[in-house]
Sequence to fold (259 residues):
Amino acid sequence: MLILLPPSEGKTPARRGKPLDLGALSFPDLTTPRQQVLDSLLDLCRGDVETARKALGLPPGLADLVHRNAALDHAPTARADHVYTGVLYDALALPDLAADARRRATSRLAVVSSLFGLVRPGDRIPAYRLSGDASLPGLGAVAGVWRASLDPVVRDAAGSGLVVDLRSTTYAAFWRPAADLARRVVTVRVLHETGGKRTVVSHFNKATKGRLVRGLLEDGANPGSVRALAATLERLGWQADVGEQGRHGTQVDVVVSEV
Fold:
């Protein structure tokens, strides 16, 4: 089973650590596009700060993130599961998992990244700021760069197993499964049910997904089909309703009564 996670917008910078080594990251087939995206981001952020700030969609109060990006090639790095923060990652709490669950996280989780394409929790990365909808000089939209590179990598990482896709809409544009793989792809939507009415939630969507992934890692089950995944979630205490298979996979609605 491969679980695809979105990155967090905010990231925790490492205080100390080795500088970035692209060749040491998981998924080495992505080294070339990683270098291209990194070089373009460095060139942008080492130029005019105001131009870079606007290109990255940063508000005026966050211009310091341009300077952080300009030093990415020699900034200290930390494990990705320490760098990525926010609601989903707080609920997932990867560093607090028991040893067996952390081993599963190492092989089953992959974070979709604007800068690196895909990273594993143990990959050492610097804190960066590059949104999924950004465009870079000489490259264009970063989504287009990764759309041209990710499919064989995701296929290899998934093997014959299930792909549980928890990405947000922005990062879903980086990779779409072809028809032959879509039957093994599950997208998850979190719904809040109250008074017989179901609504999509936003903030608590992330928290629920984080708790859901943590539960799967702690349980250790490795479901091989959409319905087996739904049954596993039900066993773990979630209400999981399986929808029809669509072009990009089968949607499973996780229904919660408390948020």
